[in-house]
Amino acid sequence: MRAAAGSRIGAYLHLAWFAGSRHRQLRRPLLRDQLQRQIYGAGVTALPVIGILALLTGAAVTTQLSALTGADSDLTQRMIFLGLFFELAPLLSALVVVARSSAGIASELAVMNLHDEFVTLRRLGVPAADFLLLPRIFGLIIALPAVTICFQAFAVGSGWLATALFEGRPLAETAARFLDFADPGLALLSLAKSALTGAAVGIIACHHGSSGKGSTQAISGAAIQAVGTGLIAVFMVDVAFAVLLYALG
Amino acid sequence: MKTAEALQASVAERRLSLSAGGCLRLMLPLDEGGRHRLVAGDAAAAQRVVAALECCPGVGVLAGSGGLLGAMTVAENFALALRYDADADDVRDWDRELEAALQLCGLAPERIAALGRERPMNIERTERWTIGFVRCLLRPPELLVIDRLFAGLPRRQADALIAVEAIYHRRHPFRPVLFVDLDSHELPALPDCRTLTRLAEPAETPCHC
Questions:
Q1: ipTM of this model?
Q2: Among A108, A112, A120, whose Cβ lies nearest the Cβ of B67?
């Protein structure tokens, strides 16, 4: 069991090293097209779900916090920034992307593996790993922070609106108080967290999709493994950043 | 099939050699062109032969299905095959060359116009193979291995594809083609076939190993 987990982590690290060392290949026009497709698939098409989820989360969190801490509380704004903006937005965005894209990437690659399309690509003179894995991994690295920014904007906007409605305070004043607590460094750190999560999710999905046995069962198996392990990776990155933030004071 | 398990292919001095179990079974000069045929006893043996040949530099394999990616359109398949490694200063007009090659292989202009948007899965097998063949025609490997083209193909269609394949020899007279086929009573004859190797039979060249 431990050996299997060790070899799997080794395979993830190997794929991460591969992606890092081959990223220049994305300058090729055909790979850039693939990258844009992945960003569109993982990012742009996720926006309706992200938008609705962010609006509801922002309103719910702000209302609960207002009820707990009382009106006119700086604590509410501080918690909106740290809890919602820094913590929940990257986490929920990553969960949406894992649910939508991770299974999609893994099963798509597993189907290609089943139909020997990796071999077909090689015979076309195209390195299969470059063409299939790089755009998917880097697509998520770019798409997830972009999705997170949208989530943060929608969630904080709906939070301000909820505060303005329930506490009867002008929207501009709520926004100004929030911005007083907003730390640009933490905002950037939240995006770095999203990018790292995107890398982890992409690497895990690509590994499970491309390393299956080439059978029909392997397709569902790859999707299940990618989502399950992807979720664990999302929370591990989240905890790592929380610890980092705590250590930095 | 003890011999087929230890297949080894290598290229040296412009010659490709294929050994089975340490015995030389096939030697192909890479700059003389022409058709060659290798007949394997079963699908697994044929697959091993192709896998061994594929490891050699300069060897291109064209599968019986045409070797196209099912998830992409025909145009995207061509773009990938022809432009992936193209230099920035490559001034060849691939679109025009492609159209001319497809016409040369017998496709009507209106069919060519519609073909780009279609997915390989929806195209009839012989046409799919012809499309894959056109890719090899435009970017010829040093040795083209045609993998089990005639398996399950009616005689009339097989003869039509042999006629299409003849274009390759006219266009690239010094590039050889190796047909890897399965041992079958229905196997069509290849005109001007220079060598015929049956993998299950003892090698023509005495083996002293």
A1: 0.81
A2: A120
